[in-house]
From TrEMBL:
Pfam assignment, any one: SFXNs
A cellular component term, taken from the record's GO annotations: mitochondrial inner membrane
Main location: mitochondrion
Protein name, as recorded: Sidoreflexin
Subcellular localization: Mitochondrion membrane
Molecular functions per Gene Ontology: monoatomic ion transmembrane transporter activity
PANTHER family: SIDEROFLEXIN, SIDEROFLEXIN-2
Family recorded in the similarity comment: Belongs to the sideroflexin family.
Entry membrane topology: Multi-pass membrane protein
InterPro entries: Mtc (IPR004686)
BP GO annotations: serine import into mitochondrion
Length: 327
């Protein structure tokens, strides 16, 4: 190194106990431009990251180079397995992928065929994101993934049909039709994500003490973590899917908008993109990535898991156990 200063490359650069610190961290690794970085550069970053982690980086490596390697590695490689993630499932692709799909759902919502098709596209995209960001220590079988995918898609379609053909028919305000995609997406998230991560709930998730030492497992931990992830995903898409319909309902009747009807999909997609650029790191930062669970809660609802933790800590269990909630 050309300087005596070093960073802990395995830890976030900003204080994760604050919302601002978490926002800066997720903005750092979810930058949409990172999805354009070629694989060769990503693998070079991984190599430098791992060498720096062991203190064996090449002579002359600067802090700037280490930080860049950290950014590329954490944006593209799975935190558990270290495998290169599918580019379409990375958080850095949430803005470009999400704005295209969301823009289409908000533009083509008037017919049943359009609702069904775009909900299918959206849930296919969500399933890929959920699979990409799964806990690699709790792999799903092909059957489980298929059930999760079909169930989430069905939930989205059922919700869309319910809102479109039941509630909407009884309502006098036409803007309600524009909110059908959001209702369907929110409902499907509560099906898709838990099913994609069902093995974490069925088998339990590794929990650690404050120092990161694994001291046992808990089935309540993934329930809490998944609930927070679902909430974050819904918050992520809410501004674009709730505010944009109101905006479009107001401006679409304008003469100048009628003259450029061909551009409506582009306008909506662009606005959604602006929302998501800010909302992806905002939603990810709502809850700490390192989630904690009271040992008293485990003692009350998971007696066997609690006894295992007590055994592994020589009879001195910590007040809280920690785990990665996932994304």
């Amino acid at each position: 190194m050309t300087t005596d200063k070093r960073i802990d490359i395995t830890q976030p650069l900003w204080d994760q106990s604050t919302f601002v610190g978490r926002f800066r961290h997720f903005a750092f690794i979810s930058n949409p431009l990172l999805s354009l970085v070629p694989e060769t550069e990503l693998h070079q970053a991984k190599e430098l990251y791992l060498k720096y982690k062991e203190g064996k980086e090449p002579s002359g490596t600067t802090i700037k180079q280490a930080v860049r390697a950290k950014q590329l590695y954490e944006s593209a490689f799975h935190p558990d397995s270290g495998e290169l993630q599918n580019v379409f499932g990375r958080m850095s692709f949430q803005m470009p992928g999400g704005c295209l799909v969301t823009g289409a759902m908000l533009q083509w919502y008037r017919t049943a065929t359009a609702v069904v098709f775009w909900q299918w596209v959206n849930q296919s995209f969500n399933a890929l994101v959920n699979y990409t960001n799964r806990n690699a220590n709790s792999p799903l079988t092909t059957t489980q993934m298929g059930v999760a995918y079909v169930s989430a898609t069905s939930a989205a379609m059922a919700t869309a049909f319910t809102f479109k053909f039941v509630i909407q028919k009884r309502a006098t305000n036409p803007i309600l039709a524009r909110f059908v995609p959001f209702a369907a997406v929110a409902a499907a998230n509560w099906v898709n994500i838990p099913l994609m991560r069902q093995n974490e709930i069925l088998l339990g998730l590794d929990v650690t003490d404050e120092n990161g030492k694994i001291i046992g497992k808990s089935q309540l931990a993934p329930v809490k973590g998944i609930s927070q992830v679902v909430t974050s995903r819904i918050v992520m898409c809410a501004p674009g899917m709730l505010l944009l319909p109101v905006i479009m309902e107001k401006i679409e009747p304008k003469a100048w908008m009628q003259r450029i009807r061909w551009a409506h999909i582009g306008i909506q997609t662009g606005i959604v993109g602006l929302f998501l650029t800010f909302m992806v790191p905002t939603a990810c930062a709502i809850f700490p990535q390192r989630c904690k669970l009271s040992i008293d809660t485990i003692k009350r609802f998971e007696k066997d898991r609690y006894d295992e933790i007590v055994k592994n800590t020589d009879g001195k269990p910590p007040q809280y156990v920690y785990f990665n909630k996932g994304l």
